[in-house]
Design a protein that fits this description.
It is built from ten helices and seven strands. It is α/β, with parallel strands linked by helices. Helix 1 packs antiparallel against helix 3, helix 2 crosses helix 3 and helix 8 packs parallel to helix 10.
């Protein structure tokens, strides 16, 4: 990670402003953000950070020191997998939904998406609990391709988007489990090579807690802290990925530079 040269006098100005913001009450934060025509929804810590980053970015921009995002795109992924109400200790989860939500970091908008169901092979019949949790039906997985075929489609889609060639990108999830557990297990079961691009990713829960100075939070709580409601159905991969993308876009809007912060262990 590049070090920031904090010797420039603008940083003293920023420090003084941050001290002023730290002394503001919740009502004062809401009023100040409102006066600036900025989003004033969310918990106090979020509002305080938002206001600080507004003034920081404004100050750095005037002297040409503002930092752009490190990646052109985020590929936001949230797998759904086979499950039981009480998973046995040796239970192997198979991916049954593979969604990607493509976020343009320059415009901070969702530009495109990809979604495929996958046919499980070890446990081809979904449990009643799994179907109820994910709203994925037996028919949808019965008529789906197997994971190796879906992964090939994912790779082709990424190539068509020129990700990794013309544009830089980072895989983004809301925790370590999608790659460290679900993708790892599925690649072993399907006897396919673990994708190189998925060995390192942005763990958005880490990014959120580090930026807003909160505990490590689940997706629903991150949304609540931002003043958002979950849109869609929880535990449906595409909807989860879309809501993770909403959090990522708000982090960037508030001044967070998203960086890869997790890896395969």
């Amino acid at each position: 990670m590049e070090r920031t040269d904090c010797s420039h006098p603008v940083y003293k100005k920023i420090s003084l402003k941050n001290g002023e913001i730290n002394r503001m009450t919740h009502k004062e934060l809401i009023a100040t953000l409102g006066d600036l025509k900025l989003d004033n929804s969310g918990f106090p810590d979020v509002l305080r950070k938002r206001l600080k980053m507004h003034y920081t970015n404004q100050s750095l921009s005037t002297v040409g020191l503002n930092t752009p995002q490190k990646y052109d795109y985020l590929c936001v992924i949230d797998f759904e997998a086979t499950c039981e109400r009480d998973n046995p200790a040796n239970y192997l989860h198979e991916i049954i939904e593979f969604p990607i939500v493509l976020v343009n970091t320059t415009t901070r908008t969702i530009e495109d998406s990809f979604m495929c169901f996958c046919k499980p092979m070890l446990n081809p019949t979904l449990s009643e609990f799994c179907t109820s949790l994910t709203n994925i039906t037996q028919t949808q997985v019965d008529y789906a391709d197997t994971f190796p075929v879906v992964l090939e489609r994912v790779n082709r889609w990424m190539e068509e988007k020129e990700l990794g060639t013309k544009y830089t990108y980072a895989i983004t999830t809301d925790g370590p489990w999608d790659m460290n557990m679900f993708m790892r297990v599925q690649c072993k079961l399907s006897q396919v090579t673990f994708p190189t691009y998925a060995k390192r990713w942005i763990n958005l829960s880490k990014s959120f807690s580090n930026f807003y100075k909160t505990n490590r939070l689940k997706l629903e709580v991150m949304l609540k802290n931002l003043g958002y409601q979950f849109e869609g159905r929880p535990h449906r991969g595409f909807d989860d990925a879309t809501n993770i993308a909403r959090v990522a876009m708000k982090l960037m809007e508030d001044g967070c530079t998203l960086e890869i912060n997790d890896r395969l262990t």
